[in-house]
Amino acid sequence: MAIVSRGFRGRRTEDPRLPPGQYLERGFPVLSAGPTPRADLDTWTFSIRGADGERGSWTWRELQALPADDIVRDIHCVTRWTKLDSHWRGVSLDRLLDAVRIEPDEQYVLAHCDGGYTTNVPLADLRGGQAWIAYGYDGGALPPEHGGPARLLIPHLYFWKSAKWIRSLQLLDHDVAGFWERLGYHEYGDPWKEQRYWGD
C-alpha cells in the first residue's frame, strides 16, 4: 500500500493560459512611467495620421457613437503578472483603420499618448480583430490610472504595447522604437516567446 503524506495533492499544474514565466494576478496593478494625465472630454480627440498629415479624427462623442465591442481577454504584463478574463469595451481598430487611407508601404504604427508616451507595433497586429481603442473596463468607464479615458488594447502582446491615454496613431513606412523600446524593451513583445527585452 502506497503511503501519501497529508496535504499531498499531486503535481501542481499551471493554467495553460499563463505564458512562460508569468504568474496569475487577481487584481489589476497600476504601473506608469509618469503622472496620470487628466483629459477634458470636451476637447479630447483620437486621430490617425500619416506622413502627409491627419487622415481621420474622432471626438469623444464621435468615438462613443461608433459600434462598440465587449471584449474579454487575458492580459500579460512584462513584469510577469497575467490577469485572466479581463473585461473591456471599445471600438475595434479595424473599424477606425478602414475609415482612413493607408498607403501600401505604411506597415508600421507609432502610438502617441498624453504625457509623451509612445510605443511601436506592426500595423498587422492592429488588424483582424486583435486590437481596440478601449474606453470601458469591468462594466464602467476606464479609470484614469488604467489609461482612461481611452487606451490602446492589444492583448496578444505584452501590456506595455496597450498604451495608456492614447491620442493618435502615426502610420509609418518603417519601424520607429517607442519609449520603452528605446530603453531596452523588445521591439515586438510576444509573451509566449518571452520577448521582454533586447535579445530575447
UniProtKB/TrEMBL annotation:
Pfam family, one: Oxidored_molyb
The Oxidoreductase molybdopterin-binding domain, residue ranges: 34-180
InterPro entries attached to this UniProt entry: OxRdtase_Mopterin-bd_dom (IPR000572), OxRdtase_Mopterin-bd_sf (IPR036374)
Full protein name: Sulfite oxidase-like oxidoreductase
Source organism of this protein record: Cellulomonas alba
